[in-house]
C-alpha cells in the first residue's frame, strides 16, 4: 500500500520535471558556479560597507600619513605648472581703480586659458584658514601668525608664499603688467616637466654687498612675479623662516607680533626679496647635496651678469631683463626688448611710507642714487664728513653757556622756517671738503 502523499508533491515533481526538460543538462551543471561567482562579485563591490577590524597602521599612523601628505617634498617631476594666475589686493576686481584694472586685465587677455583669481583684504584670512587649517595642511601656527600680523606688507609677502605652496601657478603684484603670454616664461629649449620654479634676477649689484645700507638688498631675485609648482619645500620653509623672524623681532622689542615696528630694510631682509633670495640659494644647495652632485657651493656669483637663463636644482633662473626690465641699473635693459616679459609700474608700492628708510638729515636716502657708484660714493663721503662736523659742533656746543645756539649745522643750514637753504648748503659742502682734505693730510 502506498504511503499517503502531500497534495503538493505531484505539482512539485511535475514542475521540476518541466524545468529539467527546459534547461539543458550542461547549463544546469554550471548554475552553482555562476551563483558562486555572483556572490563573490557582490562581496567585492560592497567590501567598503562591511565591518572590519581596524588595522594597526590606521590607528597609529593616521596622523603620520596626514603629515606626510602635508609636507609633500617631491613628486613634481613629470608634472606641469598649474594654469592659474594669482594676485592680491585690497579689493576685488569689480572695485579696481582704472590703473589697477588696466594692468590686471593684461593677464587674462594674454592668457585666456588660465584661471585668474584675486585674494583681497576681505577673503585672504579665510583662504589661509581653509588651506592651512584642520581640513588643509593642518598648520595652526601658520594660521595664527597670519591672523596676528598687522603690517600690510608682511601679510602680502606671506600670502604670496602661502598661495604658491598650496596651489602653485603664477604670482604677480597688482601693479605688474603682463607683456607676453605665460608660456614664454619657460624658453623652448627647456622641458616644463623638468622645472619646479621660474624666477628672475631683480638687483645685481654685488659691488655694494658690504655697504652698510645697500648691502643686504644688492643681490636679489625678483618676487613681484614668479611661477612655482605646488608644495615646493622652499615656499613652506620661507614661511617658517618669516614666522621665526617675526617672533624674534617681537621678543627683541618686548611687544606682541601685532605691535612690532619695522623699518624698510627690516622688511626687505625679513620677508621681501632678500629673504626670498636667501631661501632660494639655501634650497638649491640642499637639493644639490640630496642628489649627490659633486659641485661647488651655489652663491650669487652663479647668477651675476647672467646673460642666458639657467636651471639650478630644478629652478629656472631668468636674467634681469625678463621680470625686472627698465630699472635703470643692473643692466636691466628696457621693456621694448623681446626678452622683457612683464612691466612693473610700482603704483601699488606705497608701503615704504609706513616703514621708513634711513634718511640723512641733509643728504637724504642713498637709494635715490639708484645704484650709481659715483653717487653712492659721494653720499658716503658727505655723510662721513658731516658726522665729523657734527661731532666737532657738539663738542663746541658743550663748552658754550646754556641758552646759545643748540646746533652748529642747523644754524648753518636751516632757514627760520626749517627749510634747507641752497646757498648755505653749498657753503657747508665747501666746509666738508676742507675737513676731508685735512683728514687725509
Give a written overview of the molecule.
With about 450 residues, the protein is α/β, with parallel strands linked by helices. The chain folds into two domains: about 290 residues, Spore Coat Polysaccharide Biosynthesis Protein SpsA, Chain A; about 80 residues, no CATH class. Helix content is about 45%, strand content about 10%. It contains 15 helices and ten strands. Strands 1, 2, 3, 5, 6, 7, 8 and 9 form an eight-stranded mixed β-sheet that branches. Strand 8 and strand 9 form a beta hairpin. The longest helix is centred in the last third of the chain and has 27 residues. The termini are far apart. The N terminus is likely disordered.
Distance between the termini: 150 Å
Instruction: Determine the strand fraction and express it as a percent band.
Output: 5-15%
- Apparent shape: elongated
Please count the beta strands (DSSP E, at least 2 residues each).
10
The main sheet comes to: 8 strands, mixed
N-to-C SSE string, H for helix and E for strand: HHHHEHEHHHEEEEEHHHEEHEHHH
Low-confidence stretches: 1-13, 48-74, 400-420
Radius of gyration: 35 Å
CATH topology category name of the largest domain: Spore Coat Polysaccharide Biosynthesis Protein SpsA, Chain A
Mean pLDDT: 82
Q: Helical percent range?
A: 40-55%
Structurally, the number of domains stands at: 2
The CATH class of the largest domain, by name, is: Alpha Beta
* Oligomeric assembly: single chain
Secondary structural class:
alpha/beta
Please report the number of helical segments. Answer: 15
CATH architecture label of the largest domain:
Alpha-Beta Complex
Keywords: Membrane, Transmembrane, Transmembrane helix
Family: Belongs to the glycosyltransferase 32 family.
Protein name: Family 32 glycosyltransferase
Transmembrane segments: 30-47
Amino acid at each position: 500500500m502506498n504511503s499517503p502523499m502531500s497534495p503538493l508533491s505531484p505539482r512539485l515533481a511535475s514542475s521540476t520535471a518541466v524545468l529539467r526538460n527546459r534547461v539543458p543538462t550542461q547549463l544546469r551543471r554550471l548554475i552553482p558556479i555562476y551563483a558562486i561567482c555572483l556572490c563573490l562579485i557582490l562581496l567585492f563591490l560592497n567590501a567598503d560597507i562591511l565591518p572590519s577590524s581596524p588595522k594597526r597602521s590606521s590607528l597609529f599612523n593616521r596622523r603620520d600619513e596626514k603629515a606626510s601628505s602635508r609636507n609633500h617634498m617631491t613628486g613634481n617631476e613629470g608634472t606641469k605648472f598649474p594654469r592659474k594666475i594669482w594676485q592680491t589686493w585690497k579689493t576685488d576686481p569689480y572695485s579696481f581703480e582704472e590703473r589697477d584694472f588696466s594692468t590686471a586685465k593684461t593677464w587674462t587677455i594674454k592668457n585666456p586659458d588660465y584661471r585668474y583669481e584675486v585674494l583681497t583684504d576681505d577673503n585672504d584670512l579665510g583662504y589661509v584658514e581653509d588651506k592651512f587649517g584642520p581640513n588643509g595642511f593642518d598648520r595652526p601656527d601658520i594660521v595664527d601668525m597670519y591672523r596676528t600680523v598687522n603690517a600690510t606688507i608682511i601679510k602680502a609677502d606671506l600670502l604670496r608664499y602661502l598661495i604658491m605652496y598650496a596651489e602653485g601657478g603664477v604670482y604677480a603684484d597688482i601693479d605688474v603688467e603682463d607683456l607676453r603670454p605665460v608660456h614664454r616664461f619657460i624658453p623652448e629649449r627647456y622641458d616644463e616637466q623638468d622645472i619646479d620654479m621660474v624666477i628672475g634676477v631683480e638687483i645685481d649689484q654685488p659691488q655694494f654687498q658690504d655697504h652698510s645700507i645697500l648691502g643686504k638688498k644688492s643681490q636679489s631675485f625678483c618676487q613681484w612675479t614668479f611661477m612655482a609648482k605646488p608644495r615646493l619645500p622652499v615656499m613652506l620653509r620661507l614661511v617658517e623662516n618669516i614666522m621665526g623672524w617675526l617672533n624674534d623681532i617681537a621678543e627683541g622689542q618686548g611687544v606682541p607680533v601685532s605691535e612690532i615696528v619695522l623699518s624698510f630694510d627690516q622688511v626687505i631682509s625679513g620677508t621681501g626679496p632678500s629673504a626670498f633670495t636667501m631661501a632660494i640659494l639655501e634650497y638649491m644647495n640642499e637639493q644639490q647635496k640630496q642628489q649627490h652632485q659633486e659641485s661647488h657651493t651655489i652663491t650669487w656669483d652663479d647668477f651675476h651678469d647672467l646673460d642666458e637663463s639657467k636651471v639650478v636644482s630644478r629652478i629656472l633662473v631668468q636674467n634681469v631683463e625678463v621680470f625686472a626690465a627698465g630699472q635703470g641699473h643692473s643692466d636691466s635693459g628696457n621693456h621694448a626688448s623681446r626678452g622683457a616679459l612683464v612691466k612693473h609700474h610700482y603704483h601699488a608700492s606705497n608701503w615704504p611710507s609706513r616703514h621708513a628708510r634711513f634718511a640723512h638729515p641733509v643728504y637724504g636716502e642713498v637709494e635715490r642714487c639708484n645704484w650709481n657708484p659715483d653717487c653712492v660714493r659721494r653720499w658716503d663721503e658727505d655723510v662721513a664728513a658731516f658726522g665729523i662736523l657734527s661731532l666737532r659742533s657738539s663738542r663746541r656746543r658743550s663748552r658754550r653757556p646754556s641758552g646759545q645756539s643748540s646746533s652748529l649745522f642747523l644754524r648753518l643750514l636751516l632757514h627760520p622756517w626749517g627749510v634747507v637753504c641752497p646757498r648755505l648748503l653749498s657753503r657747508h659742502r665747501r666746509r666738508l671738503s676742507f675737513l676731508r682734505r685735512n683728514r687725509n693730510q
